[in-house]
């Protein structure tokens, strides 16, 4: 049981390093996590490395989750072997990453991330003669203290210290079934507390994404952030704007797809972090309709993820930016541009703004625009148009989106109900449901095709 987890301190020659505190070692009978609870791939990776004489531990989220009796999402391994040495031991493996080199080892459909013990950047300026993967004695930082390169190898104790939160710095040795804890992570787990290792301000300066991670884990685990860890967040929030957009996007996706997006966004707002996350999201969240719409979309996503149903990131981003598109659409239309071209212009404008800061991958951009471009077509409920709309490949996503618009109060609920009924109706019933043509009652004149009629010719290819 976690209650009994505060293990005895081993004098541990093995774990002592340069006079620094050694690890608390918690034995199996005090934590109850058996090696069989690891994935086959994680076991095979650690067993192989250990058989070759390297140190190898399961680390990070998997240990945290197993101690909390949760099912780990994936497994990370930390080892004394260098990336090249790891690469040499596993046929199906590859080295990835620049800022931080790791090795992906694949077994069947599973991938285990293997990282070499790293020396942190706050270890008294002395890396103990650690080997360096990039030829520099130290990783480089930018003018705000953000670490640009982090490939200085170190020992296990240094590796624990460079990790973010104490609960993420626990090492599990599958051969002895012991947990090594250098930073009081087990106590923090037991007390449901998130605590940054070292000086929080400095750690956030080194990597501002750690602020987002702290809030994400707080929401997902329902933990409290320790006051000293929480306090600097508000004033350092702006540092997020220095994080490369692609990294911010990855982190954003993680938190939106965590199954706890509503709770995370609430906490991000409380800590003043939402602004840097999705530029303009703060503006949206301040308008009652925008806020209702975004929160509804997140709630739906959380439910789907917890129900193990798939979610489409493109759909989610389309919802997050919809009220931006709406605002731009209205203002372009007010300038005298017809409704459909105005919508397309608005979509491009919003995507452009986001691209600069957030790097939403192009493949999502195409899908997002498709969903938006379908929206005016739901308002056409006469003639053959509703039938044609039902047959477009993105109908389902467009319809789900429409329902959210209705539910948020942006559109009359009646239109969503009409489409729900229309889909299930038989041919006769559908004919009865059609609305009279609202246009001038001229005799059948062939209408010029309109932009909204076909799959949108988005200016950004769907890669
Ligand atoms: P998840 O359940 O989301 O995978 P995780 O804690 O395993 O949670 P990962 O992103 O997989 O998160 O990272 C694995 C481990 O690497 C973390 O537990 C932590 O020890 C360390 N780590 C990850 N990101 C950072 C960071 N920005 N700064 C310091 N350490 C980090
Ligand atoms: Mg992980």
Write structural notes for this entry.
The chain is elongated and about 80 Å long. The chain contains 21 helices and 10 strands. The chain has helices spanning 28-31, 40-51, 61-67, 83-89, 156-161, 185-190, 200-206, 209-221, 227-236, 245-256, 261-270, 274-277, 281-286, 288-306, 313-334, 339-358, 362-374, 385-391, 395-407, 413-424, 427-433, and strands at residues 24-26, 56-59, 76-79, 93-96, 102-107, 110-116, 170-173, 178-181, 193-194, 224-225. The chain starts with 23 loop residues before the first strand and ends in a 30-residue tail after the last helix. The longest helix is centred in the last third of the chain and has 22 residues, at 313-334. A hairpin with a 4-residue loop joins β7 and β8 (178-181). The structure holds adenosine-5'-triphosphate (ATP) and magnesium ion. Adenosine-5'-triphosphate (ATP) is lined by residues 60-61, 73-74, 76, 163-164, 168-169, 207, 209-210.
């Amino acid at each position: 049981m976690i209650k009994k987890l505060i293990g005895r301190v081993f004098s541990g020659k093995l774990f002592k390093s340069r006079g620094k505190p050694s690890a608390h070692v918690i034995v199996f009978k005090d934590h109850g996590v058996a090696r069989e609870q690891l994935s086959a791939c994680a076991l095979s990776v650690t067993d192989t490395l250990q058989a070759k004489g390297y140190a190898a531990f399961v680390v990070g989220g998997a240990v945290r989750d197993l101690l909390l009796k949760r099912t780990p999402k994936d497994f990370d391994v930390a080892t004394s072997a260098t990336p090249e040495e790891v690469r040499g031991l596993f046929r199906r493996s590859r080295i990835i990453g620049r800022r931080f080199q790791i090795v992906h080892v694949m077994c069947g459909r599973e991938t285990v991330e293997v990282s070499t013990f790293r020396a942190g950047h706050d270890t008294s300026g002395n890396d103990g003669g650690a080997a360096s993967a990039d030829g520099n004695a130290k990783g480089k930082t930018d003018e705000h203290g953000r670490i640009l390169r982090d490939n200085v190898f170190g020992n296990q104790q240094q590796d624990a210290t460079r990790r973010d939160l104490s609960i993420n710095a626990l090492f599990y040795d599958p051969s002895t079934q012991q947990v090594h804890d250098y930073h009081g992570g087990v106590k923090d787990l037991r007390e449901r507390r998130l605590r940054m290792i070292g000086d929080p301000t400095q750690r956030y300066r080194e990597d501002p994404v750690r602020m987002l991670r702290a809030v994400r884990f707080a929401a997902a685990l329902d933990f409290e952030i320790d006051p000293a860890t929480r306090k600097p967040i508000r004033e350092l929030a702006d540092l997020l704007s220095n994080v490369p957009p692609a990294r911010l996007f990855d982190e954003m996706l993680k938190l939106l797809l965590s199954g706890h997006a509503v709770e995370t966004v609430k906490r991000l707002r409380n800590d003043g972090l939402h602004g840097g996350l999705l530029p303009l999201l703060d503006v949206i969240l301040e308008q009652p309709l925008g806020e209702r719409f975004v929160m509804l979309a997140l709630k739906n996503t959380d439910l789907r993820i917890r129900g193990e149903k798939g979610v489409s990131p493109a759909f989610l981003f389309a919802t997050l930016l919809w009220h931006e598109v709406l605002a731009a659409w209205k203002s372009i239309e007010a300038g005298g541009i017809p409704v459909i071209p105005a919508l397309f212009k608005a979509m491009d404008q919003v995507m452009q703004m986001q691209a600069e800061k957030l790097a939403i991958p192009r493949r999502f951009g195409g899908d997002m625009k498709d969903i938006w471009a379908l929206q005016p077509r739901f308002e056409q409920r006469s003639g053959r148009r509703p039938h044609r709309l039902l047959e477009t490949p993105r109908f389902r996503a467009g319809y789900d989106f429409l329902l959210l618009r209705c539910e948020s109060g942006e559109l009359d609920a009646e239109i969503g109900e009409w489409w729900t009924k229309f889909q299930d109706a038989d041919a006769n019933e559908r004919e009865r449901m059609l609305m009279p043509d609202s246009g001038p009652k001229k005799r059948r004149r062939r209408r010029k095709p309109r932009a909204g009629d076909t799959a949108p010719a988005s200016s950004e290819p769907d890669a």
